[in-house]
Amino acid sequence: MLLVMREYRRFTASRNSMKHSKRLKTSLSWLNTPPATVTIAAGFTHLELSRTCNDVEFILVMGNESDKTRELCQREKITKVPHFSFYKSKEKIHEEEGIGPDQLMGDVLYYGDSHSGVVQLNSREDVEKLIDDHKLDHKLIVLDVGLKHCGPCVKVYPTVVKLSKQMDSVVFARMNGDENDSCMQFLKDMDVVEVPTFLFIRDGEICGRYVGSGKGELIGEILRYQGVGVTY
Prior knowledge:
- InterPro entries: CDSP32, Thioredoxin-like_sf, Thioredoxin_domain.
- It comes from Hibiscus syriacus.
- The protein is 43% helix and 24% strand.
- The protein is built from eight helices and nine strands.
- Strand 3 (83-88) and strand 4 form a beta hairpin.
């Protein structure tokens, strides 16, 4: 199960809180959005995700609530808020700070996905089994190959999940090359040098690939390998 811990500061109407407000504004100024709006939006997103993602556990920490929470933030070297830490099997696998609702949703989906129609592959044997399972039905397999801490991989993944729900005639799967040695060797054997790379497989053979995170381009390539005429 994925654990997402969110840290932020409690604000009160005082001169001290105004200092925190200025600090927050500085850290979030790149969003061109009022800091309070960003914090509230992230809070609502955090709450909504906690209701809809049953396989993800959410923890909310207020960094200046007590001495213990301040110590926690110091130990984790948290200097900007909101800050999101992602844990799996007691190991921190990812963290973000000062992000908006859309990126938060993408991160949670990417690192916590275990219930969508995208098949999770953790070894070469998993890939070979998936290919064997679909040799007879002639379905197109779209294999999303990425890395755990790849921004473009996270960015495009919500599109992959959405397509997996809309295209019944296509099998969607994914593999992170840095998951283990078997996955990394698979990337090398497939000559994957940039991520994300999408491998298109049909009847046991790799018939093409798309390198990049463009949503429109990915959809166009899938349609092309499905025999639909596409004009770029």
